[in-house]
Specification:
Strands 1-2-3-4-5 form a five-stranded antiparallel sheet. It is an alpha+beta fold and 213 residues long. The longest helix has 50 residues. A hairpin with a 4-residue loop joins β1 and β2.
Length: 213
């Protein structure tokens, strides 16, 4: 065996000697920290859900009481439905939807809807609307802190607002908009309308079925 081969084997042995305990250390660290990380992620997810679905609506484990939906036209994507119950009775749900016709593309949102069809909240998750113009649809970016645009959905009862009124006031509809930017709010209004209508028409299925294939 030549010197070069001996040297290579020695180096490999040294690397292996360090690799095994290091790998074991990483595995142990992951095992010990994984529950804490998962708990932190769950807390963040719950806090975000509570922005559109206040805690007063449920006493169940809303993160566990879920339903996976395949893509449907009314929502624009596959989504998870979070189902709220109080004393075992269905009260509300939260689901994600997409407005495909934003000024700069898809607008992703999460919507809270009571069993009777009242909106409890809408929040924008992701968008690429023009900063300072159309991005007021996003609560975090709306410069009007006293009267944010997105909050006008709170408390709206779907059965009490005719389908023909789910438009901006510029189009003789129900909803406010801001001058100079109507495409973004129009897309959000239409997406919320489709989602709340879908939820109301399918509420028995959404609350009763464990999993839809």
């Amino acid at each position: 065996m030549n010197a070069a081969l001996k040297s290579s084997l020695k180096l490999a042995g040294i690397l292996l000697a360090f690799a095994f305990p290091f790998t074991a250390l990483l595995a142990t660290a992951h095992y010990l920290t994984a529950p804490a990380i998962e708990a932190s992620l769950a807390a963040e997810r719950l806090a975000f859900l509570n922005e559109v679905l206040p805690e007063e609506y449920y006493d169940n484990d809303i993160l566990a009481d879920t339903l996976s939906l395949p893509p449907v036209a009314e929502l624009g994507q596959a989504t998870t439905v979070y189902r709220a119950r109080k004393n075992g009775e269905p009260t509300a749900l939260a689901l994600e939807a997409i407005a495909p016709d934003g000024y700069a593309g898809n607008i992703r949102m999460i919507i809270g809807i009571t069993y009777e069809g009242t909106l409890t909240g809408v929040r924008i998750i992701e968008h690429r609307e023009t900063p300072g113009l159309g991005d007021y649809i996003d609560l975090k970016k709306d410069r009007n802190r006293l009267n944010p645009w997105i909050l006008q959905f709170d408390g709206m009862n779907y059965p009490h607002v005719p389908d023909s009124q789910w438009k901006t006031r510029k189009e003789n509809g129900y909803f406010h908009y801001r001058a100079g930017a109507t495409i973004s709010p129009r897309a959000v209004i239409a997406a919320v309308h489709r989602a709340v209508r879908y939820a109301v028409l399918n509420r028995e299925t959404l609350f009763a079925v464990e999993e839809i294939e």
